[in-house]
């Protein structure tokens, strides 16, 4: 017992160090912001910038599904955590070095490949981490880990981004942008080293064999069962309304690339402009914590509406800046990313909580997988359409359409998304 307690304390310290460096790295160069931003700043076609993040997201979901049986049967889950982080960092490095090419086609192909590699690494790493931490730490220590790592890393990221912003004033814009990537990769490498010191119990041979058999069946042998589960989930009226709401709310949770594209079109050639976005998103993440705590007693619908309003306001500000050349300095754009960061937190958290509360305990995993499948597929199609408009019309066109979808999403949440008033099983048609 004493040994387990000692290991738990040790693992808390090690995972806290890992979380701090990993979170700082992620905040300095969030892939869904930095990949399209640098891509546009390098002068590459706008259309492909719009689909970089949907590709990243789709590959991430696929890699989670494919790696699940391997992680479940692994003797040490931290092996896959390290592997996932290395793959993700390799993708970030690939994106950073691609701008050295003068041939735009080569830059485009490498960036698309980099997005896929980053997505694969994120999928494996996040699944391994989400299953490893509960195994090593109890609920209280997990809460302490997440709160400390999140708060401290946001402050550290702000400090580093401001230092980068100050240092590169008057310098080459792309160099200042890429420096953030190298800082992120450096933090990620230190985070990987920290994982190696985690004390994890090796699985027994019997457990390994059982989990491997179960995992293999789950991925390869249950496709008909998955389709049946999806059909069952769609029989519920509330879930059909939820799917529509989730798709509409992609106009909040998955649109950062379009704001990054718009910002890059206005001041991607200005040193420090990307640093200001990183600072703004970190500030938004810090402010969202207390704000969501203050709204804790409010209904999920109220929290979703607040998030939608913040997102709509960010779209309005972006369009106003676009139409007024005198206000196109990058500092005027920073409040937009503060609002976006807050709205993404408010909406993504509460839409997941809603599904968790409404879905039945028996078969609930099919509700989650079906929602991800529908949202991911439609999100990729919509991103391609908006990317086409941004490339052949103007970078502000997608923002205007996103604003319209925000309004429709609010209308749907208010009038059509069922309230949390009864168990999901009672709402089947």
Automatic annotation (TrEMBL):
User: What's the domain of life for this entry?
Assistant: Bacteria
Give the Pfam families listed for this entry.
Answer: MFS_1 (PF07690)
Question: Which keywords does this Swiss-Prot/TrEMBL entry list?
Answer: Membrane, Transmembrane, Transmembrane helix
Keyword Transmembrane applies: yes
Task: Note the InterPro entries from the entry.
Answer: MFS (IPR011701), MFS_trans_sf (IPR036259), Sugar_transport-like (IPR052528)
Is Membrane among this UniProt entry's keywords? yes
GO MF term list = transmembrane transporter activity
Give the stretches traversing the membrane: 37-59, 80-97, 103-132, 144-168, 174-198, 242-261, 273-295, 304-321, 333-355, 367-390, 396-417
Q: What is this protein called?
A: MFS transporter
Classification from the root reads: Bacteria, Pseudomonadati, Pseudomonadota, Alphaproteobacteria, Hyphomicrobiales
């Amino acid at each position: 017992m004493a040994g387990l307690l000692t290991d738990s304390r040790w693992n808390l310290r090690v995972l806290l160090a890992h979380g701090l460096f990993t979170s700082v790295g992620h905040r300095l160069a969030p892939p869904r912001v930095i990949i399209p931003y640098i891509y546009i700043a390098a002068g590459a076609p706008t259309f492909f910038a719009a689909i970089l993040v949907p590709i990243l997201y789709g590959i991430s979901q696929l890699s989670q599904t494919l790696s699940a049986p391997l992680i479940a049967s692994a003797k040490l889950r931290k092996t896959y955590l390290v592997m996932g982080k290395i793959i993700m960092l390799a993708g970030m490095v690939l994106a950073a070095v691609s701008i050295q090419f003068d041939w735009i086609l080569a830059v485009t192909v490498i960036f698309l490949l980099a997005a896929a590699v980053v997505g694969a690494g994120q999928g494996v790493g996040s699944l391994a981490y989400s299953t490893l931490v509960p195994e090593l730490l109890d609920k209280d220590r997990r809460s302490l880990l997440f709160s400390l790592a999140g708060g401290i890393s946001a402050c550290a990221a702000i400090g580093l981004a401001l230092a980068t912003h100050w240092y590169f004033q008057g310098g080459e814009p792309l160099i200042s942008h890429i420096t953030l990537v190298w800082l992120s990769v450096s933090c990620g490498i230190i985070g990987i080293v920290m994982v190696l010191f985690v004390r994890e119990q090796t699985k027994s041979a019997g457990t390994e064999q059982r989990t491997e058999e179960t995992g293999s069946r789950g991925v390869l042998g249950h496709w008909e069962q998955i389709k049946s589960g999806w059909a069952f989930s769609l029989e519920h009226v509330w879930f059909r309304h939820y799917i529509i709401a989730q798709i509409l709310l992609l106009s909040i949770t998955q649109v950062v690339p379009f704001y990054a594209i718009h910002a890059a079109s206005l001041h991607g050639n200005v040193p420090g402009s990307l640093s200001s976005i990183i600072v703004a998103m970190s500030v938004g993440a810090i402010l969202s914590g207390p704000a969501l705590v203050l709204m804790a007693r409010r209904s999920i619908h109220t929290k979703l509406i607040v998030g939608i309003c913040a997102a709509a306001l960010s779209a309005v500000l972006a369009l106003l800046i676009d139409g007024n050349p005198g206000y196109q300095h990058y500092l005027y754009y920073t409040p937009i990313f503060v609002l976006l960061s807050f709205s993404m937190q408010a909406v993504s958290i509460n839409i997941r909580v809603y599904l968790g509360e409404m879905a039945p305990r028996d078969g609930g995993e099919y509700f989650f997988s079906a929602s991800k499948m529908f949202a991911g597929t439609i999100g990729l199609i919509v991103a391609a359409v908006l990317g086409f408009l941004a490339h052949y019309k103007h970078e502000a066109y997608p923002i205007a359409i996103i604003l319209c979808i925000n309004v429709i999403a609010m209308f749907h949440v208010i009038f059509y998304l069922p309230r949390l008033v009864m168990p999901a099983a009672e709402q089947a048609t």
